[in-house]
Amino acid sequence: MILYENPCNERVRTLLRVEYLFDRLFFFTKGEDPRCHQIAMTTLFELLDICDRADVRTAVLQDLDRHRAALSALREHPGVDRNTLERLLRDIQAASARLADQGRIGQELRDNEWLASLRGRITVPGGSSPIDLPSYYSWQVRPSSVRAHDLHGWIEPFMPLQSAVALILQLLRDVGDAQDQVASQGAYQEMLGGKTFQLLRVWVDPALGVFPEVSANKYVIWVRFSAQDNMTKPQPVGRDIRFRLARCNI
User: Fold this and answer.
1) What predicted TM-score, i.e. pTM, was given to this entire model?
2) Which has the closest alpha carbon to 121: 99, 108, 137?
3) How far is CA 183 from CA 129, 213, 215, 229, 241, in A?
4) Domains of the chain, start order
5) Distance CA 145, CA 161 (A)
6) Average pLDDT per run of 10 along the chain, which is 250 residues long?
7) How far apart are CA 28 and CA 38, in angstroms?
């Protein structure tokens, strides 16, 4: 099954983007080829851009506090696994403390004059070529172990953010109760009556050759399935589609 996720607010959208960038960053950092490390560098700067455009650190700390309060309220509920609950609360406290003890995320990279100059050129088409950035090329031809060591040092300041975002999204995903649904003639609609969700998760059989387009507000959830042939724009599907849907909210 292929999983598609749809954020229902901008805060969760930002968290999913940050998660995606960390996944890409870790993957290409493991490579040994200089071109892998170039993608890792570009991704690192994208993470820095997100932290510059939005106060991600404050938003994540607020989310952790909100989740801690919600879980703490469950201590008196019967049937709650106290050991699991206390472990989650400890994890939240640890993630919050690590992130709160930090200053501005990625400040070490901003203070590095060479990285600051590279940041302004690496996203320009062809701007990181040896003829434009010989200092960057001299770094690329160093042994892969040296480049990997440098990358790990530049990534380390972002790790408290990565841990906190991973924990928040895990908590959010875990509360979703996936259920089988059918999109009649390729469309599914569910009335909510004022209830809101933070994240919708849709699983689709890849053999069906379709993908979902999801939207939601406090009144209704829409899931519309389309197919794509890579030549024309996606076309709505006119047949029944079976899928699984999880609604996540804390």
Assistant:
1) 0.91
2) 137
3) 49, 12, 14, 21, 5
4) 7-172 (1.10.3900.10), 177-248 (2.60.440.10)
5) 25
6) 94 95 97 94 93 86 90 78 86 93 87 90 85 92 96 95 95 91 94 86 96 89 91 89 93
7) 8
